[in-house]
Amino acid sequence: xxxxxxxxxxxxxxxxxxxxxxxxxxxxxxxxxxxxxxxxxxxxxxxxxxxxxxxxxxxxxxxxxxxxxxxxxxxxxxxxxxxxxxxxxxxxxxxxxxxxxxxxxxxxxxxxxxxxxxxxxxxxxxxxxxxxxxxxxxxxxxxxxxxxxxxxx
Amino acid sequence: xxxxxxxxxxxxxxxxxxxxxxxxxxxxxxxxxxxxxxxxxxxxxxxxxxxxxxxxxxxxxxxxxxxxxxxxxxxxxxxxxxxxxxxxxxxxxxxxxxxxxxxxxxxxxxxxxxxxxxxxxxxxxxxxxxxxxxxxxxxxxxxxxxxxxxxxxxxxxxxxxxxxxxxxxxxxxxxxxxxxx
Lengths: 153, 181
Known about the structure:
The complex is a heterodimer. Chain A is an alpha+beta fold. In chain A, 24% of the residues lie in helices and 19% in strands. In chain A, strands 4-1-6 form a three-stranded mixed sheet. Chain A has a three-stranded antiparallel sheet with strand order 2-3-5. Chain A starts with a helix and ends in an 8-residue tail after the last helix. In chain A, 26% of the residues are buried. Helices cover 39% and strands 8% of the residues of chain B. The model of chain B has no long low-confidence stretch (mean pLDDT 83). Chain B has a four-stranded parallel sheet with strand order 1-2-3-4. The radius of gyration of chain B is 19 Å and the shape is elongated. In chain B, strand 1, helix 3 and strand 2 form a beta-alpha-beta unit. By secondary structure, chain B is of the alpha/beta class. Chains A and B meet through loops of A and helix 5, strand 4 and helix 6 of B.
């Protein structure tokens, strides 16, 4: 019986000299998988043109019905995108969203992409409706999170 | 010449209230809040796939014990926090409410994941579209399921909220004879 106790204690003592497995999160972070899908970004090109042309394919593809797009025509005086139309209203309900990436897959313009930001918790349910002002990201910023994007789409 | 305006000199309404309550009570408050936020014991209330991430949060890799919240209690009587992890069906709703009612004051709720927060992809007649229809939710954590980091971030937000809390009209210590009606 004594030998069994010593055997068990030997295993316990071995663990004292092992490196701890804990990642103390707010200070140090795990590196994300290369294809990790976090917060969405609505890419704005270097020339200030939004990539989104308001085709609403993302809203159709979304399995959670979390995306709402309202398109409007571009005019000569007011041009927002290179296409005929642009997204006048673009909203994503981040609580409904399941970060599946189908919107990115459906997008023909590489306009909506999923970045690596994941700290999204908040106190109010209303905070989670992300409008255009919170989603729009300059291309350079987006490329930092997603190096696989095409700069000259 | 530099001149101080009234807004800078006069105390705000909140500050006035703090003065009235006095130094001793406000210090005691922050002590109590510190104790509360450093030992949030969650009730184990895993309902679906989010529970797997909740378990991972409690395990050694992420180690919720660093926040004093590692003791997942089997009984609601011993817990302060309900992490609703997963989709809540309409049949589960009264059970959820009952468990919440059984928890002693002060108590908090985290809605973890898309389903608990607002129904997620399950926009159907069987799933409650957000647990805030049944219980008051303090922190919403989006994600499907959220990473353990996201849940820890939610718990850190809750700790910030607790640190700012002021005693309710039922008194500082929530004595049994001060029970809410």
